[in-house]
Amino acid sequence: MMHVAKLHLADESGAKAPTRRALAKQQTRVKVLAAARSLFSEQGYEGATIRDIAAAAGMSTGAVFANFADKSDLFREIMVNDMAALAEAMREAGGQGNGVDDALLRMFAAGYAFYQTQLPLARAAFSVGWSPQDGPALRNAAPVQVLRNLIAEQLTRGVERDELVQDVHSVLRAEMLFEAYLSNYPQAIFEGWSVEALQARAREQIGILLAGVRRG
Amino acid sequence: MTSPTDLSRLDETTGGAGITRLPTVVEGPPRMRQTQKEATRNRVIEAARELFDRQGYQGTTIREIAQHAGVSVGSVFTTFASKYDILSQVMQDRLDGLYAELDRVMPYLRGSTLDRLRTMFAIHFAFEVRHKRLFLAYISATYDWTLPSASTPMGRNRRLQDIISECLAKGVSEGDVDARIDPQEIIDLLMGAYVWIYRLAAWHDADAPAMTEVMDRQLGLIATGFAPR
Questions:
Q1: Are A76 and A61 members of one domain?
Q2: Are residues A47 and A94 in the same domain?
Q3: Which of the residues A36, A57, A164, B77 could staple to A31 if both were Cys, CB 3.0 to 4.6 A apart?
């Protein structure tokens, strides 16, 4: 599932028609992002170079650097775009849930389904996420925070609906649920687990992590 | 290898001000006379350990390791498949000492399963906290596309998982762990928490007590989850 960045057809003022220059710049970005996505998927984060990405996009490295500070900037943009799309899918999935466990499970499943066809890219993301240089920026990026907030919202909703008791550890619990969600990706990446198998495992984890705050 | 009984000598040395030499006392059965290959292997591991601690994993090349070990690059490659393979061995050797100690200590730990798990991880962090960046490099490298190895990161850490598994089994027999829960689910959550704390510790430069404090909270949460219902 390719999520190409949307073309923004207005410049900063939002009122005038886009200049030819602005459109060209936008097209460069789109091409570079598409090429980067392919190369990161094929060669991993360490393996892909700006030179190769530029060549694959039919651009000079100068053109790439005019739009992106460096490789990590480029990678982060791809992930941010994907996660914005994923957040929408998760929000919708969570809304269809029957109770807090089910809602969380559906959200997790939406994530696993989203990346099922992009596992090499997910693998590159984990590699970056663990690296001291680029990891913090990726993990603290706004869209990742959105995913955490979606989980936290489910917990709050659970309290409002009287499924869960008030939780002094709600921030930690939401964080641990998010980490549990992430922790299942290696099963998909390295062991080829299906979405159903990941879901079954997530169900258990959610059960354990919510056990302390269940009402009744 | 660090002497496993020397846990009290774990000072917080900062990198860059010279290398702290680990005591090279080896416990266990007496070695047979080493073959050339074994000698090379040990020199490479020792050299790599020092360089990784000093310069980090990314910042160290095979050539530097070979040079520091006083062997040729070619002979490094007859023993190790890759730099990652060397890192794996360095980590494994380091952790073997710790796990031997934990195996000895665990049967004597008192209190609830939660208490025992908290103590176990506190010991673990105290032992390992100097090498947290290396540990992170190890995990990060495991996800690297170019590496031949495809086994699950942390899936290798069987020995730690076995220690946790025994601790939980004892909990089941003593009645504070629900027998109906698949222990592997609990182990996975614990491993996830453990690895997360390393990341926090490396990025925020936390010490062992700080890591233990965060782990204690996570353990408390998970323990509520495995208590009999």
A1: no
A2: no
A3: A57
Q: How many whole angstroms separate alpha carbon B21 and alpha carbon B49?
A: 10
Residue B6: predicted pLDDT: 40
Distance from CA of B142 to the nearest CA of A (A): 8
What residue in A sits closest to B178 (Cα-Cα)? A208
- Please give the model's pTM, rounded to 2 decimal places: 0.78
Phi first, then psi: what are they for B159, rounded to 5°?
-70, -40
State pLDDT tens for residues A71-123: 989 999 999 999 999 999 999 999 999 999 999 999 999 999 999 999 989 98
Whether B15 shows a pLDDT value over 90: the answer reads no
Nearest to A123 among B141, B145, B217 (CB): B145
Architecture of domain B81-226: Orthogonal Bundle (1.10)
DSSP state of A136: H
| Domain extents in chain B | 81-226
pLDDT in tens, A160-201: 999 999 988 999 999 999 999 998 998 898 889 999 999 999
Is B185–A127 a contact, with Cβ atoms under 8 angstroms apart? no
Query: Which residue, among B102, B111, B214, B218, has the nearest Cα to B166 in the 3D structure?
Result: B102
**A38: which chain B residues are within 8 Å (Cβ-Cβ)?**
none
Cα–Cα distance measured from residue A47 to residue A59, given in angstroms and rounded to the nearest whole number: 19
Counted residue by residue, chain A has a size of: 216
Which of chain B's residues have a Cβ under 8 Å away from the Cβ of A120?
Answer: 145
C-alpha distance from B199 to closest chain A C-alpha (Å)? 7
